[in-house]
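Section 3.1: Structural characterization of target chains.
Under the original work plan, the team committed to producing a structural model for every single-chain target entering the pipeline before any wet-lab resources were allocated. The record below documents one such target. The sequence was received from the expression subgroup and is listed exactly as submitted; it comprises 425 residues.
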Amino acid sequence: MLRTLLRPLLRGLARLLFRVEVTAQQADFNHARLLVVANHQSFLDGLLLGLFLPIDPVFVVHSTIARSWMFRILLSQVDYLAVDPSSPMAMKKVIRLIETGRPVVIFPEGRITLTGSLMKVYDGPAFVAAKTGATVVPVRLQGAERTYFSRLSGKHPKQLFPQIRLSILQARHFPMPEGATAKLRRRKSGEAMRRLMQDMIVASRPRQTLYAALCDALDIYGRSRRLLEDVKQIEYSYNDLLKMALMLGRQIERLSQSGERIGLLLPNLVPTIGLIFGLSARRRIPAMLNYTAGVEAMQAACDAAEVKTLVTSRAFVEQAKLADKLAGLANVQLVYLEDVRERIGLGDKLWLMLWALHFPRRFELPAAPEDAAVVLYRERLRHASTKKVLLEKPEVEALLALIRAPGGSLGVAALPAPGSELDAL
């Protein structure tokens, strides 16, 4: 009775404090045997799922966690089954519970994330789904890892009440895989569950442009957070990257048209990354050229992507001995960053310091997440033929979602190794 009265109050309080947003992609909870799987971000996860899922499930929790007095207070509002993952009988208890027709919620990772990304996904939950024939509904939690109820280290920024999102994805089934032994079938089931969890992370990612993602990172981690270092061994912060994106994007915009594909022939240094974000914000599509390719291959790359403007650097051209190659390019206008730097005037600097840095989101022109984001080339250096790959923003975001680890840092190599097969970004 008390739980029935408290649940609406707790749900309203959670919506007020954490601005909880629930989205569903053709979710259906009306199944005789139902298993809900979710990523594990904080001690609030069970309570949030219990409050906002349209079912009254039983939560499977680690026996060690269930002994914590703080966690028992949260568990008092839901039904739960404490199990020891190291015990062979643990999953049998879950199987019997599902067979009774009671919905079950389980965290396949087994523990709260320590990195913000997926932890090891255990085989047990997938084997339970295959053994019982239960319908599996994946639920992605986002934002709870930034609360003080998470277990992320101190380098990860936390907030009192960050916004939390629950994404309910389409139901799946796990048929029992074929295998000579139970151990092999269990391992195959576990691999299927790992793929499901990875697909869930990608499918529920925010639908946004590259520049909007950079702005979100600024808000989450703070402008002073250092995240990049290149061969010059200089550490760059989010604010440094934003300055480069704003100023370089503004300058190259004056030399190009909206929707134009801009060739980049630059080393893998931090300003190049800033230029990519700046071009994306102003609806220019960067096309990364391979400097080790021959003149014919480089010309073919420009023709394939319809590149009319090529941004490079005189220092880089001299160091990499590219003058002869650039002289052989036809129908391509060369823009040198040294010249761009000279054109930056007092008005540009005042614009940057007094307006753009304070309102970075207004710098971005209206664009859809499905618009083209970047042109990649895949080529073999000994051949002149070049294959163009045009990635849209969702595809780039999907790649980032697979490798994203909040709080990590990125190193930028100076130059790719000559003679190798390249995928330039």
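Confidence is low (pLDDT under 50) at residues 380-386, 402-425.
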